[in-house]
């Protein structure tokens, strides 16, 4: 943006990408989902304040906390106006007044923020919405995607995406959707949508990152962060969510080695394994062990196990291709897509070459 120092603009853009979803979730809990537009407007106003103040002053030491505090003040200003306009409604006025006097109106504790993010994830995946609408709403509220970004994901016109998001919010209001994590059978059904969206988010980031786009890795990290929130919750935790987290860790461990400085793609065989992040790989295996606690096996389990085989091999030549072929056989039985078929064929060829070399 013209007139704004590059470092300030990057910080604000990064802040919006990483923190906007948290603020929207916090405000939505207080106002209700029917006021999500208000929550998003407040976040936009916070960004405008940052763009106005930070170039003229120094950036705050903790930009994320500044964002939360500024959002809190703007929300309270809105409540004051509402309280004045609705002063004839004693019950509503009392509710607003109690919030105004509560200094903890927007909590700053990490576990409280995570609980609100968890509620937002499941709310965006409400069954009243179609899969495309769930994706659009989640990418907008959780990650701060623009309609242009979302249109490229859904392969739809930008105007169509904007209308889809508006209709999705209207449907949620009409259905009186609660800002909460569901229970019973609905929890399991909605969990499937949640993990699918998180997988999509990560895949998008991984694809962007292949072009040396810094936003790519940030999106992958956001998807992992949200996945860990879901996986660590005692009610929402599922083996396949741990498997998805393992998959993400394994991919992130070698994220920086996939492309050259010029943006050229580097094959798995030619990647510098000494640069793979061993600590991240360890976290991946820890999540993979957690995923083994269940009785069922998902595609995420198999994909993570395949990546684990690559990550534990010191060199490409030492890769256990026989094990990878076995895993791909099971995966192909679940998902006979062209991509899985091609990957399986490569694994079979490598396994045969290794057998011949041993022979």
Topology of this protein?
Elements: H1 6-31, H2 36-53, H3 63-85, H4 90-100, H5 110-124, H6 131-143, H7 147-154, H8 158-174, H9 184-209, H10 214-232, H11 239-253, H12 278-291, H13 299-312, H14 321-334, H15 338-358
Helix pairs in contact: 1-2, 1-3, 1-5, 1-6, 2-3, 3-4, 5-6, 6-8, 7-8, 9-10, 9-11, 10-11, 11-12, 11-13, 12-13, 13-14, 14-15
Brief write-up:
This protein has 359 residues and is an all-alpha fold. Helix content is 71%, strand content 0%.
Q: Find the count of extended strands (DSSP E, 2+ residues).
A: 0
> Compute the gyration radius: what is it?
23 Å
How many structural domains are formed by the residues? 3
| Mean pLDDT across residues | 83
**Topology pattern, helix = H, strand = E:** HHHHHHHHHHHHHHH
Task: Name the quaternary structure.
Answer: single chain
Low-pLDDT ranges? 355-359
Percent of residues in beta strands: under 5%
Distance N to C terminus = 63 Å
User: Which class of secondary structure composition applies to the elements?
Assistant: mainly alpha
- Quick one: biggest sheet? none
């Amino acid at each position: 943006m013209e007139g704004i120092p590059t470092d300030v603009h990057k910080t604000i853009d990064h802040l919006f990408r990483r923190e906007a979803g948290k603020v929207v979730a916090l405000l939505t809990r207080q106002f209700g989902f029917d006021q999500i537009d208000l929550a998003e407007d407040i976040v936009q106003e916070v960004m405008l304040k940052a763009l106005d103040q930070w170039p003229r002053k120094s950036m705050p030491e903790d930009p994320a906390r500044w964002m939360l505090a500024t959002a809190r003040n703007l929300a309270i200003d809105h409540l004051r106006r509402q309280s004045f306009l609705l002063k004839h409604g004693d019950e509503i006025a009392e509710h607003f007044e109690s919030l105004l006097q509560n200094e903890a109106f927007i909590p700053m504790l990490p576990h409280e923020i995570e609980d609100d993010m968890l509620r937002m994830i499941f709310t965006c995946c409400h069954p009243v919405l179609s899969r495309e609408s769930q994706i659009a709403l989640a990418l907008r509220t959780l990650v701060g995607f623009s309609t242009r970004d979302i249109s490229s994901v859904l392969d739809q016109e930008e105007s169509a995406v904007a209308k889809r998001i508006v209709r999705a919010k209207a449907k949620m209001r009409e259905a009186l959707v609660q800002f909460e994590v569901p229970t019973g059978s609905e929890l399991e059904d909605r969990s499937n949508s949640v993990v699918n969206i998180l997988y999509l988010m990560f895949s998008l980031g991984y694809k962007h990152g292949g072009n040396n786009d810094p936003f790519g890795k940030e999106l992958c990290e956001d998807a992992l962060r949200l996945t860990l929130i879901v996986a660590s919750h005692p009610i929402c935790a599922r083996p396949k969510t741990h498997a998805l987290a393992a998959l993400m860790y394994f991919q992130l461990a070698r994220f920086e080695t996939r492309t050259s400085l010029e943006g050229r793609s580097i094959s798995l065989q030619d990647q510098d394994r000494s640069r793979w992040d061993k600590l991240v790989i360890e976290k991946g295996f820890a999540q993979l062990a957690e995923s083994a606690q269940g009785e069922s096996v998902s595609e995420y389990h198999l994909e993570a196990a395949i990546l684990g085989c690559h990550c534990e091999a010191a060199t490409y030549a030492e890769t256990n291709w026989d094990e990878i072929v076995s895993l791909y056989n099971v995966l192909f039985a679940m998902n006979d897509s062209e991509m899985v078929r091609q990957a399986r064929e490569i694994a079979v060829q490598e396994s045969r070459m290794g057998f011949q070399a041993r022979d």
